[in-house]
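#struct-help
A.M.: can someone run this one for me? Single chain, 154 residues.
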Amino acid sequence: MKKNFVNIVLLFVLVFLTNCGYSPLLVSNKIDFNIADMSFEGERKINNYIENSLNNQIRPKKSMKSFDLKIKSSFEKTITNKDKSGDPKNYNLKLITSIIAISNNSETASKTFEKNISLSAQNKKIDEIELEKKYIKDLSELIGKDIIFFLINQ
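D.P.: on it. Structure tokens below:
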């Protein structure tokens, strides 16, 4: 009796969770804009990651609102604390991206996106460099998604 009750409850939970109506925002039809032109300044690697992120999400259609984007990115790596001998223990990686979006009806919007993450110093510098590259890529892709959300709301 108890086993049947548990099975019935699990079945109801499964049915309600699969039919909750969730759909990801970037897959939905809310993306009704096109990026006509993008110009970049600043850190080349960050700009490449952002451009790839935007290109993967935007599919141009004829009757959409169109934007020209001017994107400027910068990167800062600061030491947050040191050990007794003066060697760095932790770093703070900070990506700052400013965009100016000019729509096809000449409306201008601008916004600055800032992402940061802590990185602990590694024993092997090659591991630290690889981890830093991974973090920069991940943060740049997050900024690319933030830009898409910003443009959706314009």
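A.M.: thanks! The CA atoms of residues 67 and 106 lie 9 Å apart.
D.P.: also worth noting: The first helix runs from residue 2 to 18.
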